Amino acid sequence: MAISGDQTIQTGLEKGIIHVNHDHKIITYPNGKSYNFEDPEELIRAAIFIELVDKYGYPPARLDTEVYPPRREPKIPADIVVYEDNEAETAYIVVETKADATKDNTDIAHRQGLGNANLLNSKFLYIVCGNERFAYDVQKKPSLKTLQKWSIARIPEKYGQVPQYRYLRGDPKWDLRKLGFGELSNKFKLCHDAIWEGGRRDPAIAFDEISKMLLIKIHDEWFTHQDSYYDFQIGTYETDTDVARRLKTIYDKFRDKEPEVFVKDIEIPNYVIFRLVEILQDVSLKNTDLDAKGRAFEKFLGRLFRGEYGQYFTPRQVVEFMVSLINPTEAENMIDPACGSGGFLLYSWMHVKNRIQDVYKGDDRTISRIDSDFSRKQLYGIENNDRIARVAMMDMAIHEDGRSNIECNDALSDYSHFDPKKDVRRNKFDIILTNPPFGYDVTKKDVLGRFDLGKNRKSQRTEVLFLERCHELLKPSSRIGIVIPNSVLSNTRDLYVRRFILEHYHIDAIIGTPFETFKSSGVNVRSSLLFLRKKSTDHKIQKQDVYFARANYVGYDNSGKDIKQNDFPTILQHYRKDFVPEKFVSTKPSYVKIQLARSGMPGSTAMIRTESPTYNRSAF
Question: For residues 80 and 60, is the Cβ–Cβ distance under 8 A?
Answer without folding.
Answer: no
